[in-house]
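Entry 12.
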Amino acid sequence: MATIIDGKKVAEEVLAECSREIEELKVHGITPGLAVVLVGEDPASQVYVNSKVRKCAELGIHSEKVVLSKDASQDEVLATVKRLNEDAAIHGILVQSPPPSQIDEEEIIRTIDPAKDVDGFHPENVAKLALEDPSGFVPCTPAGCMRLLEASGVKTSGADAVVVGRSMIVGKPMALLLMARGSDATVTVAHSRTEDLAEVCRRGDIIVAAVGIPEFIKKDFVKQGATIIDVGINRVEDPAAKRGYRLCGDVDYKDVFEKAGAITPVPGGVGPMTIAMLMKNTIKAAQAL
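Predicted 3D structure (tokens):
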């Protein structure tokens, strides 16, 4: 039976660290500032943005929420980013993903000042991650996953790790973090088109599931005693649920639970860590002044 890795508890520990660091900055007259740009009114994106703004308020981080029309042009979004780049009160900038179809997200990311790119998606920060340069920003979700492994006492050195998913948001940076000096895992990056994916996953002492398919990872994918980090968050219809749907991860939690050694729940696992690490990155940006 698996040990549950409590993301809420670990996130609280990270946020306590953040509070102490913010107080130290304020002694020197610096208040960390985060700007969140939302293009359109996608309900899920609004929830994410509002949760980030609330967390800033709780910690004492200055925040600016910029909401642009769903019909906003590329030039409007670029102008907003450029304004925030020049704003001395703003240390971190993120543009909520995904934007509407008329927006070229890659150009937006490249326009953000790398020193304010607290999402860690700018090519300069991606390069620093690959080069193990600690001055860069690590994407928040993979950074949160690593913190969960560390807090849970999971041994990564010499371990076989399988990352299921190859996105720039989670899969690729997660693989880089796991194979970096100090982590020293042997890493396989797989995805939904990997031939005999179950067999590949069964090699893993650690499995990080970030494939974006509800309950995709079953118990036959899992080695006895493996650690499972479930990055997925999916809304699936459930007539028995009060809201008509339920949230689940990319791992079939009930199916895997008896076989895994440790596992993150959804919700309450990786999710809280993502926001906590965003706050951590914002403070890092302010400290770099």
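Annotation: The longest strand covers residues 33-39. The longest helix spans residues 7-27.
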